[in-house]
Amino acid sequence: MQSDSARRLVRIGTALAWGLLLPAGLTLVACGDSQPEREAPVSTADARGTEGLDTGAFDSLPWAPGNLDRATGTYRLPVPRPDLVVTVDGVRLASRVAAAGWVAFKPIPGGAVLTAELPLLADEVNPVLSAALLHDLRVTSLHPHFTRDDPRLLFLHLAAIGETDTLAAAMGAVLQTLEDVKGQRREIPAPVDISGVSFYPAPVDSVLRVRGRMRDGTYEITLPRSATVEGFDLGESSGIASRVTFAGGPSSAVVSGRLALLEEELQPTLKALRAAGIEIASIDDDAMGEEPNYVHVHLWGRGSATSLARAIRDALDVMGH
Fold first, then answer.
1. Under a CB-based contact definition with an 8 Å cutoff, are residues 146 and 119 in contact?
2. Which of 181, 215, 233 marks a domain boundary?
């Protein structure tokens, strides 16, 4: 059974996002030239002494100063992407509609709750995600907002609770990482056709210590988990399972799949995967009231079969398999 604090932190990004938008008087804009009403930016001189939150901690963050909702004490900093020209179905959208990110700090006794939503290009996702993990910010979700956007954007959601200065410094490091990787395309390995290669599983078995099965030339590992919904049992056939597939040859292999994680397993598993060079493709919560709740992480990696197997083994160790 996961703790209330773990459950709350995983869901806090979504829950507070709406709670922070609405009290600030922001309007959701779909099209047209109308601008959302926003409070005037708050300078450090104005903000010092404001009950609950000293915004001076945020002065060094990119795009500061932000906006302070004096009714709730929440400080909200925009993370714009003016460098992106986004079209959806051939319709060019303003960046504030298609790629508007934000960071929010909600004061609590002894510190703040941080929530954030960052719009990222594919090659920016994993460096920024790794920076968040390195600075102990919780990664809660990674998903698209559109189905046919060009360029393709993914939105990374973060959350944390702690001392205000510590959170501001951590978020500053994450935003600096985003600035550093903007426009940089990762080095793509040479293309390889493995469609006709039958995977040899013995080296992977010795590392994983979990037996899989061959399917159409690929090697699939399935680890069932269980949950209940309104007293009814769910299992592997209902999607409550981790499934990882290996393909290719010993020196040039790929791994893809989905891990079903308890909420308290999410952060250490992400750290293990990223430390091994495995890319995170998406993080979503398919919750429909099941107990316990699982968060699903989709992954991708290229390398030797044994190195990929060691990466997955590290994740399975976190999960207790």
1. no
2. 181
- In this structure, what token pair is assigned to residue 87? 């079209």
Q: Are residues 172 and 230 in the same domain?
A: no
Q: What is the pLDDT of residues 77-123, one digit of tens each?
A: 999 999 999 999 999 999 889 999 999 999 999 999 999 999 999 99
Contacts of 310 (CB under 8 A, 6+ apart): 207, 276
Please state the pTM of the whole predicted model. 0.83
Alpha carbons within 13 angstroms on the beta-carbon side of residue 312 total 34
Residue 269 tokens read as 């598993």
Shared domain for 89 and 224, answered yes or no, is no
Are 294 and 227 a contacting pair, CB within 8 Å? yes
Q: What are phi and psi of 54, to 5 degrees?
A: -100, 105
Name the amino acid, one letter, at 186.
R
Assign 62 to helix, strand or coil.
coil
Question: Quick check: bond before 65 cis, omega within 30?
Answer: yes
73 part of a folded domain = yes
Domain membership of residue 17 as a residue range? 4-181
What does the alpha-carbon distance between residue 321 and residue 150 come to, in Å, rounded to a whole number?
40
Taking the C-alpha atoms of residue 144 and residue 158, their distance in angstroms, rounded to an integer, is: 15
Structure tokens at 49: 């002494």
Q: What angle do CA 303, 307, 309 make, to 5 degrees?
A: 110
Mean pLDDT of 37-58: 56
pLDDT reported for residue 36: 41
3-state class of 228 per DSSP?
strand
pLDDT, tens digit (0-9, with 9 covering 90-100), for 166-201: 999 999 999 999 999 997 877 877 888 888 899 999
Residues 255 and 174 in one domain: no
Task: Find residue 248's DSSP bridge partners.
Answer: 253
pLDDT tens per residue, range 123-139: 999 999 999 999 999 99
The answer to the question of residue 295 being in a domain is: yes
Helix (H, G, I), strand (E, B) or coil at 111: strand
